[in-house]
Design brief:
The chain is α+β, with helices and mostly antiparallel strands. The chain has a single domain (7-388), classed as Chorismate synthase AroC (Chorismate synthase, AroC fold). Helices cover 33% and strands 19% of the residues. It has 12 helices and 17 strands. It has helices spanning 34-45, 53-56, 103-112, 123-130, 136-142, 147-162, 187-195, 204-219, 249-258, 279-282, 353-376, 381-388; strands at residues 7-12, 18-24, 61-65, 67-68, 71-72, 77-82, 167-175, 178-179, 226-233, 263-268, 287-288, 294-295, 304-305, 308-309, 314-320, 331-334, 339-342. A hairpin with a 5-residue loop joins strand 1 and strand 2. The longest helix is centred in the last third of the chain and has 24 residues, at 353-376. The protein is globular, with a radius of gyration of 22 Å.
């Protein structure tokens, strides 16, 4: 893979003190607002079908370094989100071993430790890989809670992209068996309608049916997955490359979205529908406008041809499986004695497809920002815009 320009690492556990990120490679002079990051964090926490944890956490970011007087300095940026729920887990998640634990602390440790593998989670594979007897040690980092800090990183990426007129959004196109068949005519309308919906669906009637499906699943103690779409527009031609397999833009975007917990499939453009389309209907015909600019009337390629952005909007679809933590207990095994058991239940959502869409939007922004920085370079916004031709 080519040299990354926008790099980051995160740390933190689901019920630990906080989630952190350190971002490297952000040029100087870019306006960054914590309020915008907090708005994106709030978007991730909203959505019909979310669980009790979202009533506890009200995620806000603290920018600890790399930004001064509202602008980046070129130094690494450090972000932190505190876990409000840590107050209830302080003994359980203590960094140091409790030397003289109270009876209450011992009770909590026993209560929060578990050895019954949850089907669909990382529990079994993680316990074997890292030789962990207490599955709490697997759950804490494999939890989707860590996506909160990734959304904060993605918000920084989106604020970089906005300097170049590159904007993106996400919306939900399926929950359970309920699919969005009617699309508003423009991306602007889709975005506006989706933002007004607590299931992020751009059609009111479909949104009603989605909420009904979520209510029915909740009554059954079950969970629902679904499908979302991420769209970024005003993309320049030339992001990504065909010269090596790991430099293809569609491949990088697919990996970024696929690695979100619970995502089981990623599509670009027409995606799986490509299998049923003849070539004459699949490929986007090319036309020349009066000003000699290139345009197309369709975008089945999803804005990427040969691993390179072609100037059309980038369109990514992701499929999220139903959340595997559910009240309806599934058969499993207790690793303590290898006996049959019912799966451990941890507080959970019924449906988190809208939240997953926000995470995918953030992940896509990170890849696009990295590709943009790799292409035009520059240590400051002024230098970047000079290279970009603005």
């Amino acid at each position: 893979m080519g040299m990354k320009k926008f790099r980051f690492l995160t740390s933190g556990e689901s019920h630990g003190k906080c989630l952190n990120a350190i971002i490297e490679g952000v040029p100087a002079g870019i306006r960054i607002k914590a309020a915008i990051i907090n708005s994106d964090l709030a978007r991730r926490q909203q959505g019909y079908g979310r669980g009790e944890r979202m009533k506890i956490e009200h995620d806000t970011v603290e920018i600890k370094s790399g930004i001064r007087q509202g602008k980046t300095t070129g130094a690494p940026i450090c972000l932190e989100i505190k876990n409000n729920d840590y107050a209830n887990w302080e003994d359980v998640m203590a960094v140091e071993k409790l030397e003289y634990p109270t009876e209450e602390a011992l009770r909590k440790l026993e209560e929060k430790s578990f050895t019954k593998v949850r089907p669909g989670h990382a529990d079994y594979a993680g316990s074997k890989k890292y030789n962990l007897a207490d599955l709490r040690d697997v759950l804490e980092r494999s939890s989707a809670r860590k996506t909160a800090i990734e959304v904060a990183v993605g918000s920084i990426a989106k604020q970089i992209l906005k300097e170049f007129g590159i904007l993106g959004f996400s919306h939900v196109i399926q929950i359970g068996n309920v699919k969005l068949d009617f699309y508003p005519k423009t991306y602007t309308l889709i975005k506006e309608k989706a933002e007004q919906s607590n299931v992020m669906c751009a059609d009111d009637l479909t949104a009603d049916r989605m909420r009904k499906a979520i209510d029915d699943a909740a009554q059954e103690g079950d969970t629902l997955g679904g499908k979302f779409e991420v769209i970024f527009g005003n993309i320049p031609v030339g992001l990504g490359s065909y010269v090596h397999w790991d430099m293809a833009l569609d491949g990088r975007l697919a990996q970024a979205v696929m690695s979100i917990p619970a995502v089981k499939a990623v599509e670009i453009g027409a995606g799986v529908d490509s299998a049923s389309l003849p070539g004459s209907k699949m490929h986007d015909e090319i036309f020349v406008a009066r000003d000699k600019s290139i345009y197309r009337n369709t975008n089945n390629a999803g804005g990427i041809e040969g691993g390179i952005s072609n100037g059309e909007a980038i369109v990514i679809k992701g499929t999220m499986k139903p959340i595997p933590t559910m009240k309806k207990s599934l058969a499993t095994v207790d690793l303590k004695d290898m006996s049959p058991a019912n799966a451990h239940f941890e507080r959970s959502d019924v449906c988190a497809v809208p939240a997953c869409a926000i995470v995918a939007e953030a992940r896509a922004a990170i890849i696009i920002a990295d590709e943009l920085l790799s292409k035009i370079g520059g240590d400051s916004l002024t230098e970047m815009k000079a290279h970009y031709g603005i």
